[in-house]
Structures are given as structure tokens and as C-alpha cells.
Design a protein that fits this description.
globular; 401 residues; six-stranded mixed sheet
Length: 401
């Protein structure tokens, strides 16, 4: 009875005929549903009120503040809680990302899967860091999982924020910080509160979200842009405005800056501060190493971070692969049709005859189609051969090891 992990409209962890689905994006699963946090790309399960969702009460409150409706059927969990579902036990742990965010440790008789969701491994102005924990399979987010993403120390970013706002902009214009309503908005408010005497004015969804943080005991001093105090501050020009990235302000005489981890690679294109509630490349690599997994599966990366799993394999020596619909086990991928994969793998090895010559996977797909194999079978066979050291994969293609 294998412990299995795959992506199917969410991260699916199965043991025998039991399973759980983590951060599902579709309402197609009958398994118990677990949600990590309130950002929309993880909380889609709350769009289906008939489903029972395990999540933190803070996640529910934040979704309500963002205008989500019919937030029903919550089974509340908090860091340290465990949920037992037959032979599967799910434990929640702080992920260090935003208010109420958790990662899930899924324990079975055959091993443990740790699903991080979005996470941060550094102490921020509003969150404690995610702690590593031993696991057999680590499913890790890689939003900033490329060497180009190296975040400066948070205190240094804070100095840049207040110097720009107070010394560069203030006096003639109003500094405006464009950022995520949940997470970085509250980090900016905390920076302004701690390092300056500049009043913080929140606009649009940044206001109700910050109210939820205050309800949970956060000492964040800010006022809403539509309140009388907020309008007076904006009229005086002696404040800073925090507003969502996509919003437009009617206020004139402003200068805008972005607060985001993406500022790391933006150069001089616009004023931007590299403030993030995610782990950067070095922190991710350190986290993977400290969790001591037998296998690593990566997700939530884009084109710039798609090769994070290769860094894990090459630098840490841990078997790793992107999380896909392919079934994964502690020992490696589970082929859906092993006889077909073996036959395709044999044909690939027979086709790749020139030692040291790199063959493009796209060429192999075309060649294998002539022998009756589908693109999916060829791709799985290439991964199968690379996993076992028969082929070596690089940016130039694959060749015989």
C-alpha cells in the first residue's frame, strides 16, 4: 500500500483508498479539503460553500474582509492541531506567510508528506518564521526559487522605505505603496509605525484586511482613506498611502512605489522595494536541506523558477521533480502503465546512440511517436531514465550517462 502524491486540481495525498486534497482549485474531489491561507490562488475551495474546509479562523475572517460570500462549512484548525481521518493524520503548522497561514504535515503508516503552501522562513514585521520538520516527501512552493531572487535583510528594506517616503517624496508629494492587501500591506504599515512618525492611510481592501489583523492583536496604526481623518491627512500631504497593486487613486500629487519580492529583478524600471512574505532562493534551499526529505516535489513556480528541482538534486543530492499529475511515491514516480513505459524507455535508449550527444526531448517525442508512443509516455520515460541515472538531463537536452 503506497503513499502517493499527485497534482489534480490541488495537491492530492493518498494512502490506500483514503486521501486528502490540499488547496484545491476545482470542486472535483470527494477527499477532505485543507486550505493553507486566504490568498485567492490557494483559497478557491471557499467558493464552494457545500464543501467542508479545514482552515484557520483567521483565513475565514480575511476572506470575508476581501468580500468573499457564503463562507460556510469551516472546520477550524490552528498551528499545533491535528485531524485524524482513518489512517491519515493531518497536522497544521505555522507557515510564516500571512495572518492565519499554515502548512500541513500529512502522516500515514508508510511515511509523511509536508506540504508548505506559501511560506516564509524569516522573521518578518508581522509573522514568525516557518520551522523545518523531518518528512519523507516535501512538497515545497518555489515562487522565488531561482538564484536571481536574493532578498536583502528586512531591516535594510525598512530603511530604504522610510528614507524614500520621508526624505525623498514627502514635502511635495504623497508616497504611495502599491502592494498585496494581505501580508505586505501590513508589513509596510508596521515599518512606518516603527521607523517614522508618518501616518499610514489605507485604501480599498487594505483597510478591512488591516482591521482583521488588529482584531487578532496586531498593533498596526493606520486610518482608512475614506474616513474624515484619512481625508484630512491626504489633504495635508503629510501621510503615506497603502493600497492594492491594481488599484487606482483619485488623489493627485502622489508618487508610487511597489512593495513586492518581484522588485528584486525590476532594476531601475520603477521605484520598488524587495519586500516579500515568501522565502527566497537561499532560504528555500536551506529549508529543504533542514527538512531532510527523501524526495522533493516543487510547485507554484513560474518559468523563471521551473528548474528549482534541478538545484535540489544537483546541490543537495535529494531526488526531486516538479509536482504534476504523475503519481509520485517516496521511491519515485509510479508509472500508470509500466509495461508501456518500459517499452518506451527501451526504445529511447536504443535511439540515443551517440555518447555525449544531447538530444532534445521534443525530438524524442516526435521519434517515439513513430513507434506508437504518446508524448506523455515519452516524457514519463525520459523522467524514468533520468531518475535512474541512465540518462543525464541538462539545459542542452538529455544524453546517455
Amino acid at each position: 500500500m503506497d503513499l502517493k502524491v499527485r497534482y489534480s486540481g490541488g495537491v492530492v495525498v493518498e494512502y490506500g483508498d483514503q486521501g486528502v486534497v490540499l488547496d484545491p482549485t476545482r470542486n472535483t474531489h470527494s477527499y477532505p479539503t485543507f486550505v493553507t491561507h486566504a490568498h485567492a490562488d490557494h483559497a478557491a475551495a471557499f467558493k464552494h460553500p457545500e464543501r467542508t474546509k479545514y482552515a484557520t479562523p483567521e483565513t475565514l475572517r480575511l476572506l470575508g474582509a476581501m468580500g468573499w460570500k457564503r463562507l460556510e462549512n469551516l472546520e477550524p484548525v490552528k498551528p499545533g492541531d491535528k485531524v485524524t481521518l482513518g489512517d491519515i493524520e493531518v497536522r497544521a503548522h505555522n507557515s510564516g506567510h500571512v495572518l492565519g497561514s499554515v502548512m500541513y504535515e500529512v502522516n500515514t503508516p508508510e511515511g509523511t508528506v509536508l506540504y508548505t503552501g506559501d511560506m516564509c522562513t524569516e522573521t518578518t514585521f508581522t509573522m514568525n518564521p516557518a520551522a523545518p520538520m523531518d518528512c519523507d516527501i516535501l512538497v515545497v512552493e518555489t515562487t522565488f526559487g531561482a538564484p536571481m531572487f536574493s532578498f536583502p535583510k528586512r531591516d535594510d528594506v525598512a530603511v530604504e522605505v522610510y528614507q524614500w517616503a520621508v526624505n525623498t517624496v514627502l514635502g511635495g508629494r504623497i508616497p504611495v505603496f502599491k502592494t498585496d492587501s494581505i501580508g505586505n500591506a501590513q508589513e509596510i504599515i508596521s515599518i512606518l509605525n516603527q521607523f517614522t512618525n508618518l501616518p499610514a492611510v489605507t485604501a480599498k481592501s487594505a483597510t478591512p484586511v488591516t482591521d482583521v489583523y488588529r482584531e487578532q492583536g496586531y498593533n498596526l496604526d493606520s486610518v482608512d482613506a475614506k474616513s474624515q481623518e484619512g481625508m484630512d491627512l491626504i489633504d495635508s500631504g503629510k501621510c503615506a498611502i497603502i493600497t492594492p497593486k491594481g488599484s487606482k487613486l483619485t488623489t493627485s500629487n502622489t508618487e508610487e512605489a511597489l512593495a513586492s519580492g518581484w522588485a528584486t529583478i525590476m532594476g531601475k524600471k520603477r521605484i520598488a522595494f524587495p519586500l516579500s512574505d515568501h522565502a527566497d532562493y537561499r532560504s528555500l534551499m536551506s529549508y529543504v536541506r533542514r527538512c531532510k526529505p527523501k524526495r522533493v516535489l516543487t510547485f507554484h513556480g513560474g518559468s523563471m523558477t521551473k528548474d528549482f528541482y534541478k538545484h535540489v538534486k544537483n546541490s543537495l543530492g535529494i531526488p526531486a521533480a516538479p509536482l504534476t499529475s504523475r503519481v509520485e511515491t517516496i521511491m519515485g514516480p509510479l508509472m500508470s502503465n509500466e509495461s508501456r513505459i518500459r517499452a518506451c524507455s527501451h526504445q529511447i535508449v536504443h535511439t540515443i546512440r551517440i555518447p555525449g550527444f544531447f538530444y532534445q526531448p521534443s525530438w524524442l517525442v516526435r521519434e517515439m511517436s513513430r513507434h506508437g508512443f504518446t508524448p506523455g509516455e515519452t516524457e514519463n520515460s525520459i523522467e524514468y531514465l533520468v531518475e535512474r541515472g541512465i540518462l543525464r538531463g541538462t539545459e542542452d537536452g538529455v544524453c546517455l550517462s
